[in-house]
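Why predict the complex rather than its parts? Because the way molecules touch one another can change local conformation, and only a joint prediction can capture that. The input here totals 924 residues.
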Amino acid sequence: MWSYAFKRAATTAVTLLAASIIIFAFIHIVPGDPIYVLLGDTATPDQIDALRHQLGLDQPIILQYLTWAGHVLEGDLGRSIFFQAPVLSVIADGAETSTLLATMTMIWVAVIGVPIGMIAAVRHGTWLDQGLSGGAMLMASIPTFWVGLYLILIFAAWLGWFPSSGYPSIFEGGVVNLRYLVLPSLALAAPNAALILRLTRASMLDVSREDYVRTARAKGIRPWQVVRRHIWRNALLSVVSAFGFTFAALLSEAVVTETVFALPGIGRLVVQSILRRDYPVIQGVILVIVVVYLLINLIVDLSYRLLDPRVELQ
Amino acid sequence: MSSNSVTLWLKPFVARPIALAGLGVLLATVLAAVFAPWLSPYDPYAIDPLIRLTPPNVTHWFGTDQFGRDTLSRTIHSARMALLIGSGVVVFALATGVPAGVLSALFPRLGHLLMRIVDVLMAFPTLLLALGLIVILSPSVATVILAIGIGYMTTTTRIVYGLTLRLRAETYVEASRSMGAGAAWLISRHILPNLVSPLLVQASFVFAFAQLGAASLDFLGLGAPPDIPSWGNMLAESRTFITRAPWLLFFPGMMIVATAFSLNLVGDALRDRLDPRFRQVFGEKG
Amino acid sequence: MLTVCDLTVSVGPETAPVDIVAGVSFGLAKGEILGLVGESGCGKSMTSLAVMGLLPQPGPRVRAGRVLLEGCDVTQLQPWQRVEAGHGRMAMIFQEPMTSLNPVRRIGDQIAEAVRVHEGISGAAALVRARELLELVRMPDPKMQLSAYPHQLSGGQRQRVMIAIALACRPQVLVADEPTTALDVTIQVQILGLLRELCNRLDMAILFITHDMGVIAQLADRVAVMYAGRIVETAAVDALFGAPRHHYTRGLMDCMPSRNSGARRLPTISGQPPLPGSVAAGCVFALRCAAVRDECRVATPPRLEASQGHEVLCAFPLAGGELP
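Output of the joint prediction:
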């Protein structure tokens, strides 16, 4: 088990290294002199000289990369042109919103997707199953921003139950401010819940076709007990790992939803930075998200191994 | 291909009427895209400030937008962009993914390298990768195709890699190799024909998700240029008017859903065709 | 004990069903071992699942016929329904003991689960009973094996566990679907011996499904030969081997090499078994039968009684002379 963990961690580190090279090169691939890319058009000659020296832009590219990597490891991701502040603090400002949004979304996904998927699997072949599966496929075909816009139209504009944009922090206004995240998280949850539903259903059906489930039925155990004792746990194993990957993917999917609901999160930060040509922020966000994404994937993979006793026992 | 195989391909559609409906919707979309200028009642670019923001009525079935442009005509013309981007993404993903996957499976050393590259590319969440590319190359239709396409190139490569490895291990392939068959022969005779069906399924789903991805990019203003009508662009423009003109929100979005849903249905039906259907129907071997 | 009457299992839509098992009838007396023999795909596994009430849902279904356990109709009932109705004393063991046991649960728990259903005891008492059952199936070191996982056991041991699970309901009928096919020949002998012993001790009837004629010759009291979803011949084992009446059975006997056969080419039955539903009329074996006549292709063959307890589904059965 531990040798596997070590190997996976090593692979992740190598992948991260390679990705970081690409992210580093980002500034140089973008059209324009890297100096102006980083400082903007209104840079003064002093700033230019200072940056040139700090980044070692007259040095061979490998040394530049190492310098950059060194800065990153110290927490220095550069300076935002628009905010005139360290990139890391700009990103940190948006972290609370994005994390809470992702968490709420995952809760909806779990609460809606898994139970309905199980019901569809147990009622396999009936109209209920076909309806639920079809409905799930429909939900997966709807763009999140459209769901978001409709949620705003119905629940914010017409009914007035929830606010339509913004998010004041819960640290300032209390937990009640979470209501700002209800509509956005529902919008994000819709297609993801549908996918988890289909995955749960498929996983349960696969397990129910296994020979040992047939043995359990032969013993005379009632259907729901068969599900509970033999199918459920083994089926959920693969669903759980999908959860982790979904959470990781949410980080970038939230980009559109945050834009629709004007949430001060990392996703909206990326879009605005692109429109504002604030390249240091774009680079910084991509780096942070990739690191988090790879870490979550690693943790999920290792947890899966930990939970599956078959691997343990061997 | 005998007529027998044609009926075999149609069977899963006939068995499930909703998949047949999906196929119909897709056909209608393709026709709309091809014959757009003849089908549209008005010029999609024609501005008429006098009739701005009118709800659906007899003269304008889908209503008009904030510039007085006919929504129906714009919706029909947007089908072109949808088709263009969808097929572009699929072609790109297949053209790069299939060779990469097949060659990686047949030549292990090359495969090791290519799979590492795919791993690195997959370290970037798809939307983020697309955004990054759009920043580097300025927004245009080609950039959108490339940006979304790279995301699906990676999954296609992996799928093709896995399939080819499995095919290579089949005894009939081993038999061919033992008779001295070269790589090119193996690829053309054994590997590629067996890839057609699963890739067809994959293509449907990629086409579907490309629609959603392109719509999101258009909505953010980072996709196709705003002067070209596309469903995503139409939705982006409608945003400020959704309370006053909800029909502007409805029709383009509905088209995205209809197209993506139909493609998913078709892909599902095709995938069922691939499954060992005998086993599904007959249960265990008697 | 067990009576199967005209059992028909079909797949496909209600309007156009395809029969994979058609009109199968046989009886099983207390303590008797009936061998159900036939080639792969003839429908014997499907028959066994139907008899047990384990047909996969959705999918094949019993379209006609009845399964009677001690006179009670259990045809459309699944095992849990049979237990509830008080007719749950039928158990089944399968071909692949490795995949038939839940890999992430201990052996003791899996046996105790069956004990709980049928004897209503739980916890430690169920485990005690589980251990007794392991002793019954002659498992070495039963106490330790209770806490073992399936992958820690050998193939033969796993099959013993399956039998132990089956015995938890004190079965009147044990359905055994090719239980030794996946085992080594030496282990096969042990398991067959165990089954024979249990049959004698517990007065348990066994429906033994296999494609191996040699196993049938050793173990069975009576034999039913199946072809393309139909039973073509039923007889006591000696009568079947000594004087087969159906042309298919004769063909099977001829295919088996014997010690006296010398170094000659093994005869085969030419052709392939028909796909379910492809024979619209007449005898299913007509296409491959060496003694086929025009009538055979048109008329459904009658079920004739060749001698006491020896039935054959053929219009022109063999006379019944000795085999070389």
